[in-house]
UniProtKB/TrEMBL annotation:
InterPro entries: LRAT_dom, LRATD1_LRATD2. Residues 1-30, 45-65 are annotated as: Disordered. Residues 50-65 have a biased composition (Basic and acidic residues). This is Protein FAM84B-like. Residues 110-205 form the LRAT domain.
Length: 277
């Protein structure tokens, strides 16, 4: 498929294989349960508003953003944790764009968030400006414009990879400005921003060979004792699912998973009765 960016295709839990449908994992279990697959896509194009300035009502709602519906998670590459969102241990407070400008230094990754939307990631390059993937193009905008009125936070510490020097991060971002459509190597703003900061080809489309057992696992944390694990062949695919969870929210993910598990249990019972008869 090359670098072509196509429509998003997410296989719902009803359409994907389930290794063990018994329910949520206990905190001692880390085995994979459900695999989720994507076709090359660009989720930012599907949900984000244009950078023409948000309306006042939307802006007022986003000022009240509460992260209580965010789903905490951990990403593993084989047995190594490479990403962790822990709302209790990490500073996940959000700020207005004006306050963010006082906190950012060149090379920082910033995540803008709003309820019901995909999070939007940008690379701060200095002089109040950011570089980001937006609507199938790498753009250089002022941070205040790129935010679209959303609140933001610095997210350098979510990924546990070793960061490149700040000047290299900025250079990586600036060199891509103007790329668009088929010239793009990233499916969303998070993949692009993370590639700029860490330089890992895994964040690019097709950056990893999809051969053999899925080495990546997304452990979704619903409570201290309840979690669920999805497995993926690439971190690119995993990020797509993680971002989808952010967009629909913790409660919706919980309900979606519960519906799937209940449906699978019913199918197993029907199969059992048929085999007995």
């Amino acid at each position: 498929m090359g670098n072509q960016v196509d429509k998003l295709t997410h296989l719902s839990y009803d359409n994907v294989p389930t290794a063990d449908p018994n329910g949520f994992d206990t905190e001692d279990e880390l085995g994979p349960r459900i695999g989720v697959s994507y076709i090359f896509s660009a989720d930012d194009d599907e949900q984000e508003e244009r950078i023409d300035g948000p309306d006042k009502d939307q802006n007022e709602e986003e000022k009240q953003y509460d992260n209580c519906d965010e789903l905490e998670c951990v990403v593993y590459y084989r047995d190594e944790s490479v990403y962790e969102k822990n709302l209790k241990l990490s500073d996940m407070s959000t700020y207005s764009t004006e306050n963010l400008l006082n906190k950012c230094i060149p090379g920082d990754l910033v995540e803008f968030v709003a309820t019901g939307q995909y999070p939007h990631w940008v690379v701060y390059v200095g002089d109040f400006q950011v570089v980001h993937l937006h609507r199938a193009e790498i753009k250089n905008n002022f941070l205040t414009d790129a935010s679209q009125g959303k609140r933001g936070r610095i997210v350098n510490g979510l990924y546990k990879f070793i960061a490149l020097p700040p000047e290299v991060v900025v250079q990586n971002a600036m060199q891509q400005v103007g790329r668009r459509d088929r010239e793009l190597y990233w499916r969303n703003s998070e993949c692009f921003a993370a590639w700029c900061r860490f330089g890992k080809r895994e964040f690019k489309i097709g950056g990893e060979l999809r051969i053999g057992k899925q080495p990546y696992r997304l452990k979704m944390l619903f409570s201290e004792k309840k979690s669920h694990v999805l497995e993926f062949q690439s971190i690119d695919d995993l990020i797509m699912e993680k971002r989808r969870n952010d967009q629909i929210g913790r409660d919706a993910v919980t309900q979606e998973l519960a519906n799937h598990l209940n449906s699978t249990d019913a199918e197993m019972k029907d199969d059992f009765h048929q085999s007995v008869n």
